[in-house]
Amino acid sequence: MAAPQKSSAFGPYKYPIEKSDQYKSRITFQAIKVIPPEVTIRVKTSNTVAEDGSEQTNKSFSGIGASPASLKVNEIAGEKADLYLPLSFQVNDGFDYASASLGLGGAAAAAAMNSGGSIAGSVMESLKSGAQSVFDLFKTGAVSRVAAVRGSQAIPLIPDAVKSAIAITARVTMNPNIRTQFNGVSVREFNFTFKFLPKSPQESREVNRIVKFFRFHAYPVEMPYGQPYSIAFDYPNMFKVRLLSEVQGMFRNIGTPIKLCYLKTVSTTYNPTSAVLHPDGSPTEIDLTLTFTEYKPLSRYDVVNEGNDSFYNFENAPSSSTGQTNRGGNDFI
Questions:
Q1: pTM for the full predicted model
Q2: In Å, what is the CA distance from 305 to each residue of 75, 94, 149, 157, 158?
Q3: Distances (CA, A) of 117 to 126, 133, 178
Q4: Looking at residue 317, what DSSP letter applies?
Q5: What is the pLDDT of residues 219-235, one digit of tens each?
Q6: What would the pLDDT profile of 291-305 be if each residue is shown by its tens digit?
Q7: CA atoms of 204 and 209, how far apart (whole Å)
């Protein structure tokens, strides 16, 4: 059985090739391979005797185990592309909030807990106070508009249409006691658009290799590889994306760094504005748009460590780097 190809074969890549030393800023894309531990499922086997005297073998799940080898995160040697810095770099940090309606009982429970009461005691107290208030309204014959609306809502036998009629007639709406509820952090996405104008057939071929480099690592490997049909996919490789600016011989991060991410879309347009080709038939203009998505949402810990190499660790597993590392925690590499 043929083994899957591990690299795009022609890296590392760079653009532009001609006069590239004049560019003091760049964006780098380093392909990352995650090697997971071997996972095994443990099965317990037991034998029983059936009524007819035959022996039956029963299997039951007993647990999940992993190999002694831990998770590994490796930079793939040679699988790196250095490109010119795009015109703009937009970072969108998103957070998921929703409106939660506490109602009368929930608001009473929250108030009781905020005052130091227990959860169980707060719930019971809110139910007790809510029921007692409705009972008191009818017991004392209160006919205020609020009493009428609240009382109708507390009686299950009253149809919804009648409850709405009472509320409209009384011109009263019960306060839903809405609070803003935090539900989590959104996974960030990043878009990069490049317009390549290769000045020579050599540069045009390099751009073609760069496009293939991104497509190669964006696609998964079939399992098993190279067979008439497959049963699963191995995860695609990830990317370490860094926007860098050269300062006195060292490169510094530009803007907010990006965690390890997957390449979500690759869009390529050849000769979008002209049909002119190089003498060898290669295109003279290529537009490339890439969309990356981080493998996890950020936390405050990530924000604090944005200037350190630990920011790029995958699930707290240190990566094996083939290049320079940041030792100062000040965004320089």
A1: 0.76
A2: 20, 19, 54, 59, 58
A3: 11, 20, 21
A4: B
A5: 999 988 888 888 999 99
A6: 999 999 999 999 998
A7: 9
